[in-house]
Amino acid sequence: MPVRFCELCEKEVISVRDCRKLGNVYDLEFDACSGCICKLIVREHSGLLGFLCCGEETTVPYSKIKQIGSDIILVDL
Predict the structure, then answer these.
(1) Residue 20 scores a pLDDT above 70
(2) CA angle 46, 28, 30 (to 5 degrees)
(3) Are 15 and 77 a contacting pair, CB within 8 Å?
């Protein structure tokens, strides 16, 4: 099932190792030759309602994505 980038950005990224919320998809890196996604760039949000200040940025290799659900992305980090 295809997923649009704007839909990915709405999903919360959670580590399956410690159930920690890493943030939301902010950007992605892909291979220009193959067109395949290499990494997701996840940015933690902090501040009022989680939208005012951008916190730590985490890079998630595509191989570490375990499942993309309807409202969350599970990763093995």
Answers:
(1) yes
(2) 165
(3) yes
pTM: 0.83
How many whole angstroms separate alpha carbon 32 and alpha carbon 68? Answer: 23
- Quick one: pLDDT at residue 49? 55
Structure-token pair, residue 47: 């501040």
Amino acid at 14: I
Query: To the nearest whole percent, how much of the chain has pLDDT over 70?
Result: 88
Helix (H) / strand (E) element for 55: namely strand 53-61
- Contact of 75 with 60, CB cutoff 8 Å: yes
* CA 39 – CA 16 distance, rounded (Å): 17
Q: Residue 32 has what DSSP assignment?
A: T
